[in-house]
Specification:
GO terms for molecular function: ABC-type transporter activity; ATP binding; ATP hydrolysis activity. One of its GO terms (cellular component) is membrane. The chain has 21 helices and 10 strands. The structure holds adenosine-5'-diphosphate (ADP) and magnesium ion (MG). The site of adenosine-5'-diphosphate has 12 residues, from helix 12.
Length: about 625
């Protein structure tokens, strides 16, 4: 059993807990404080390009609301008449006809209300679906820095929360807005017209309450927006945390960290609890202000009765007036709710559109070229690179030329920048200075898509998705038809064909989230097969063999030997056997390269090779 509160277990040090971004305010981007009207304006401005195209369901919904309000305004005067008829037994004959009309009107009212809501939800949900797709598209366009939380980026869990839950909130907000603009306003005006027609004096008395209420509600709405913002941030923190911890559950167990993680989770859950409680309390308060209207109606009823008893007011008119008032409260409540909805939706809209609202750096220059065929010559010229403003230089004047078809091995201490070099070649980052050429063409002037088609990368951390083996190998063609012949070819070259055929459904076996059902060596060979599938002329193998046992390593090494025949290969490795297959070997240290001769590698003592990061 876990302790209920982290504080009950003093051994869980505050240091562990302080790792958590507990203070929701720490998430807020330091934006200047805007007036609430400008928040509203910005939100409307952001939403309109997505909502306006849905004008068809919107207009249909509004049309239906016209039908429903019209029916209601026909029903209301009938209620007074009806009550008069009911008190008069001779009127039974007339009541049938009146009853039929009333029944039809009620049906029209109900049908109108239903269709109005169905159409407006249709519009709101479609608009938000478009927003979601757009947000995700923009997220995929962001450069790597955006995803690196250390550099002030946004965590995957936060992004996921915005696109899922917050987008749902935005749909509620859009619906509430659409429902207010026409249906509520229409009903409000219709009922006010009815009341004015019956008794202007009573109407004025009833109307006096409204401005006072509006002021109070407006003030509370602004508070609600602020509170909602914090509530969004605490859930985002929960989501970010879960996204990080759940995929690493084995690691948590292996470290006996269940208690610690549970405590960390509780901290986040409780932070969210208090923010949400504040929000719900505020939300519960606003309708109560509006409910005052009901009691106002009761008061009017008493006043009306007094007037009737004095004979100065007609009983039928009184009943119609109060009925109007009751149906007036409905749209006022609707508008209040929409205001509520809008104020708590604004932060969600802001956070969601924060992901859209950036100018994607045009990655391709306007005159960028498409490379159709690449022989595979690669040159790094005097590369300087660091990951951020205040970060140390990772590559410091690195120069390397790889001939077409050549295999170059890269060794060096961990953290030396080997992976970084690979990332630069496929332009996940651009160097601070210096340039990289492929077939004598600066990669910054090659269309990015074209460049990445010609460079295959087997990255150090293997990424596999749930899906079949064939889908994982043919990932590049997921949108098109996966060419099974190429898949099997690639698998054979990568020495993966045999184990794949032994899987329950062969190439059609689902390998589970992140390739759960495969061993390390199998994942590695699958990743190599995937890089081979695209038939690129340049291949980067980033520590493809370091995590493998000797047999798997042999299988992978055979695979690499096979693909050396028709690729330019940059192999980053730690094993001497792998390194010795290469035509040339370089040591990457202190941001620079130094060539190691074969004799150095073979004849040197163990100690002098330690600094190369080689495993012998
Ligand atoms: P290697 O592959 O040789 O082990 P890397 O190229 O992965 O080394 O890393 C080189 C250096 O760059 C390391 O000091 C590492 O801490 C730093 N580094 C790597 N990736 C990032 C990143 N995304 N942001 C900041 N620093 C990074
Ligand atoms: Mg690395």
């Amino acid at each position: 059993n876990f302790p209920l509160l982290p504080s009950t277990n003093p051994r869980i040090s505050t240091r562990v807990l302080s790792l958590l971004p507990l203070n929701p305010k720490s998430y807020q981007s330091p934006k200047p404080h805007h007036h609430s009207l400008s928040h509203t304006f910005n939100s409307l401005n952001s939403l309109s390009p997505y909502v306006l195209p849905q004008f068809r369901p919107i207009l249909l919904g509004w049309l239906c609301s016209l039908v429903s309000v019209y029916s209601l305004s026909r029903i209301v005067p009938k209620v007074g008449n009806f009550s008069a008829i009911l008190g008069d037994f001779n009127g039974v004959g007339r009541i049938r006809g009146e009853g039929l009309v009333l029944g039809l009107l009620v049906l029209a009212r109900l049908g109108g209300c239903y269709l109005q809501q169905a159409f407006l939800w249709d519009a709101a949900l479609r608009a938000v679906c478009d927003v979601r797709v757009r947000v995700f598209e923009r997220v995929l366009e962001r450069d790597m820095g955006f995803f690196e939380c250390g550099g002030g980026g946004v965590s995957a869990g936060d992004i996921a929360y915005r696109i899922t839950a917050e987008a749902s909130d935005v749909a509620d907000t859009v619906y509430a807005l659409l429902n207010t603009i026409v249906p509520s306003t229409l009903q409000l005006s219709a009922m006010v017209a009815q009341m004015l027609a019956i008794s202007p004096v009573l109407s004025l008395i009833s109307a006096m309450v409204i401005p006072c209420m509006a002021l109070v509600v407006a003030y509370l709405g602004d508070e609600l927006r602020k509170i909602s913002k914090n509530a969004h941030l605490t859930v985002a923190a929960l989501s970010a945390y879960l996204n990080e911890i759940l995929p690493a559950i084995f690691f948590v167990k292996a470290n006996n960290a269940e208690r610690c993680e549970n405590a960390r989770f509780q901290r986040l859950a409780r932070a969210d609890l208090s923010e949400h409680l504040k929000k719900k309390k505020m939300k519960a308060f606003i309708p109560q202000i509006i409910q005052i209207m009901y009691f106002g109606a009761l008061f009017l009823f008493c006043a009306g009765s007094l007037a009737i008893s004095r004979g100065s007011f007609d009983g039928r008119a009184m009943i119609s007036f109060v009925t109007s008032l009751v149906f007036l409260i409905e749209p006022i409540q609707g508008i209040g709710k929409a205001y509520n909805e809008w104020k708590q939706g604004e932060p969600a809209i802001e956070r969601l559109f924060d992901l859209i609202r950036f100018k994607p750096k045009a990655i391709d220059k306007p005159d960028a070229v498409d490379l159709n065929h690449v022989t595979g010559e690669v040159q790094f010229c005097d590369i300087l690179f660091k990951y951020g403003e205040n970060m140390p230089l990772v590559l410091n004047g690195l120069t390397l030329q790889i001939k077409a078809g050549e295999t170059v091995a890269l060794v060096g201490p961990s953290g030396g920048g080997k992976t970084t070099l690979a990332k630069l070649l496929i332009r996940l980052y651009d160097p601070l200075s210096g340039h990289i050429l492929v077939d004598n063409c600066n990669i910054q002037s090659i269309r990015l898509e074209s460049l990445r088609r010609h460079v295959g990368l087997v990255s150090q951390d293997i990424t596999l998705f749930s899906g079949t083996v064939a889908e994982n190998i043919g990932y590049r063609d997921l949108m098109k038809e996966i060419d099974m012949e190429r898949v099997e070819d690639a698998a054979r070259t990568a020495n993966a064909d045999e184990f794949i055929r032994n899987l329950p459904k062969g190439y059609e076996t689902n390998i589970g989230p992140r390739g759960l059902i495969l061993s390390g060596g199998q994942k590695q060979r699958l990743a190599i097969a995937r890089a081979l599938y695209q038939k690129s002329s340049i291949l980067i193998l980033d520590e493809a063999t370091s995590a493998l046992d000797s047999r798997s390593e042999l299988l992978v090494r055979q695979a690499v030997e096979r693909l050396m025949a028709n690729h330019t290969v940059l192999v980053i490795a730690h094993r001497l056997e792998t390194v010795l297959m290469a035509h040339r070997v370089f040591l990457l240290e202190n941001g620079k390269l130094q060539e190691l001769s074969r004799s150095t590698l073979l004849n040197n003592h163990y100690e002098s090779l330690v600094s190369t990061g080689l495993v012998i």
